[in-house]
Specification:
alpha+beta, 2 helices
């Protein structure tokens, strides 16, 4: 939660990131069991993996026919994004602990 960008947009109808950032000490005790149930019951809500991607022009670029002149904006479910971040962090930590990565592969 501490690494979330509080004002980053989420999908309409989902919890905004700022909600997690401003209320973390009250909601973490409730989110933890919810996430554990996701794995225990092997249930991942159908709408969680859904994202919407929009492409926006970068200001000040002279040639918009170049791919680097555009910026992708990805909107996702805030609750799902938080779980995905936690799972990714755990997978990286475990792969480094058990030396599963090649010598020149770095996490991040």
């Amino acid at each position: 939660i501490q690494r979330m960008h509080p004002y980053k947009a989420t999908l309409p109808g989902s919890c905004p990131n700022v909600l997690f950032c401003k209320t973390s000490k009250w909601i973490v005790p409730h989110i933890g069991p919810l996430y554990r149930a996701t794995f225990t019951l092997e249930y991942y809500p159908n709408k969680w993996p859904n994202t919407q991607t929009f492409v926006q022009r970068k200001p000040g670029k002279s040639d918009y026919s170049q791919p680097g002149s555009w910026r992708p904006l990805v909107f996702s479910e805030g609750l799902a994004g938080l779980l995905n971040s936690v799972v990714c962090d755990e997978a990286m930590k475990e792969s480094e602990i058990h030396s599963l990565l090649p010598a020149m592969q770095f996490g991040g």
